[in-house]
Amino acid sequence: VRCLQKVEQSPQSLRVQEGDNIAINCSYTENTSNGLQWFIQDSRGRITSLFIVHLGMQEKGRLRVLINTKDKHSSFHIINSKTEDSGTYLCAATN
Length: 95
Fold this sequence. Notes:
The chain is globular and about 35 Å long. By secondary structure, it is mainly beta. The strands form 2 sheets. Strands 1-2-7-6-5 form a 5-stranded antiparallel beta sheet, with no helix packed on it. A 3-stranded antiparallel beta sheet has the order 4-3-8, with no helix packed on it. It has a single domain, classed as Immunoglobulins (Immunoglobulin-like). It has strands spanning 7-10, 22-28, 36-41, 47-53, 56-60, 63-68, 73-78, 88-93. Keywords: Adaptive immunity, Cell membrane, Disulfide bond, Glycoprotein, Immunity, Membrane, Signal, T cell receptor. It comes from Sarcophilus harrisii (Tasmanian devil). It is found in: Cell membrane.
């Protein structure tokens, strides 16, 4: 099986102060029939799925994700960041 999907995330690294609003962008090259997923990897290496998004916007508390399938772009937002939001955020496009 050959995968042509390329995913780019920006910024690659981000340092914020508690209370800051954060935006992380994800662009992909191929249409995603199964949507786009956002994950967090905590300091212990555990990966947790935060969102699977197909269209529009989803919210969970202070977290929000938007997707524009026409432009093949998604953005992940944290409003009023907290210490417990610390981790590595990842996006993944699945076909």
